Amino acid sequence: MASVLVVCTGNVCRSPVAEGMLRAGLEERLGEGAPLVASAGTAGWEGSGATPESVAAAAERGVDISGHTARRLLAEHVAGADLVLAMAAEHRWEVVRLLPEAASRTFTLKELVRLVEALPARDQATGLAERVREADALRRSGFPGNPHDEDVVDPLGMPLEGYRAIAWELEEWCGRLADDLAGTGTARSGAAAAEA
Q1: What is the pLDDT of residue 44?
Q2: What is the reported pLDDT for 185?
Q3: What pLDDT, on the 0 to 100 scale, is given for residue 3?
Q4: For the chain, which domains are there?
Q5: At what angle do helices 160-181 and 128-140 cross, to 10 degrees?
Q6: Do β-strands 106-108 and 3-8 pair in parallel, antiparallel, or remain unpaired?
Q7: Distance between alpha carbon 97 and the CA centroid of its chain, in Å?
Q8: Which portions of the chain are predicted below pLDDT 70?
């Protein structure tokens, strides 16, 4: 079965929320055919739960991450994933440093959404691995994206309102990605997708 790995720093704030949002979105759209979704952190707080603020912010958006357990990113996690989604460019670089051959299937969340939305609408027969190859080919062709807005801000240390804002942002971006991977998204023109 296809799998997605979501990566941040501690695996207690952004990546657990994104993992939960993406899993819920894909399961809603694809049912039992949804890819597996997991997460890890480049400096993972091994064995810790998600922060209480992350749990609360996700719950307010209908996603339960209360059972999350953090883990440190290992090469084997990356090797087993068809797609690696980084919360920030620094995480993408760390994934590629850990396993260079994963570069073609490693993106920041926002980068990948902009890429797939610039591609022709997805044929429902196209699998996750093929969509990732198409996105990487577009990236390598010089697609500009928006390098000034690739990262999801780390809310660690912020009040609950900061976590709520990040959960809202992750719900939006994960929903757009789930739409595309399910074949229900709407392709945008290259310029519009880059700016979005």
Answers
A1: 78
A2: 61
A3: 96
A4: 3-195 (3.40.50.2300)
A5: 100
A6: unpaired
A7: 19
A8: 123-125, 185-196
Q: Rounded CA gap, 26 and 100, in Å? A: 28
Residue identified by tokens 């990732």 is 132
Print the SS3 string covering the chain: CCEEEEEECCCCCHHHHHHHHHHHHHHHHHHHHCCEEEEEECCCCCCCCCCHHHHHHHHHCCCCCCCCCCCECCHHHHHCCCEEEECCHHHHHHHHHHCHHHHHHEEEHHHHHHHHHHCCCCCCCCCHHHHHHHHHHHHHCCCCCCCCCCCCCCCCCCCHHHHHHHHHHHHHHHHHHHHHHCCCCCCCCHHHHHHC
- Closest of 147, 170, 148 to residue 15, by C-alpha: 170
d(CA 194, CA 118): 8
Backbone angles phi, psi at 94, to 5 degrees: -65, -40
How many residues does the structure list for the chain? 196
Residues 177, 40, 91, 148, CA torsion sign: positive
CA angle at residue 177 from 87 to 194, to 5 degrees?
Answer: 75
What is the token pair recorded at 144? 């500009």
In 3D, which of 24, 159, 168, 149 has the Cα closest to residue 87? Answer: 149
d(CA 9, CA 12): 8
Query: Hey, what are 192's tokens?
Result: 């519009």
The pLDDT score that the predictor gives to residue 183 is 84
Q: What is the mean pLDDT of the chain?
A: 92
